[in-house]
Amino acid sequence: MKRTKEDIVYQVETEELAKFAKALGHPTRIKILNHLDNASCCYTGDLLEVLPLAQSTISQHLKELKDAGLIQGTVNPPKIKYCINQQNWIKAKALFNEFFSRNMNEISCK
């Protein structure tokens, strides 16, 4: 069976949605994103005051969010300043909205 352009786009979007969902799959990461949304940007040390976790644990969660593309970091030695990656955040919101809209229309409970 030959794959169409629509199949490839669907697969890429599905993989992106799964990547974003995985990154959002931990309460600490949600808390980090909420903090960044309210503060616009922050340094790792700022999160130590907000979250009762070790710096290494916070750094691991930041890495997951960064790898998923939901946040970006700017190195200002010796610190890293983090903020939400607006372009990918908009993309994630659109993918989730499309996913929930499409699937809600297809579900029928009896």
Automatic annotation (TrEMBL):
Naturally occurring in which organism (per UniProt): Lutibacter agarilyticus
Entry GO MF terms: DNA binding; DNA-binding transcription factor activity
Pfam families registered for this protein in UniProt: HTH_5 (PF01022)
Descriptive protein name: Transcriptional regulator, ArsR family
Keywords carried by this UniProt record: DNA-binding, Transcription, Transcription regulation
Presence of the UniProt keyword Iron in the record: no
DNA-binding among keywords: yes
Entry-linked NCBIfam families: HTH_metalloreg
